[in-house]
Amino acid sequence: MTVANPVTSLAAREFQAGGGRFIASTVESLPAGERFNTIREDFPLPLGPVYGPNRDFALARINRLTPGGRWVVTTESVEFATTLEEVVADLNVDVTRTVAPPCPRRDTELTVGAPRQCGALHPD
Predict the structure, then answer these.
(1) Residue 63: pLDDT above 60?
(2) CA angle, 113 as apex, 111 and 114 as ends, to 5°?
């Protein structure tokens, strides 16, 4: 397992000490050739309803997925989830939106599958 975060927290140091691979980096800064089965982001900073930055944000993650991989985004911003869905609409990916119950707060989770090949998503 690889964990990337620009902030090296105590939890990150403990994860690394336990044999995990921690990279003090953003997803965009990871080597372009690295591929991941799952990229998970909890509450990334919404970028506003603007196409370009959100498209770049999404592609930086989708392009690092293995065939059949998943990018999971948890956000409290329905606008951010909607914008991300819109900027990947022309790609050959599956998008699933799951809305958590409204208590104690309303979170939206978006899962984006890796690009399909030959019209079918490869299994993990």
Answers:
(1) yes
(2) 145
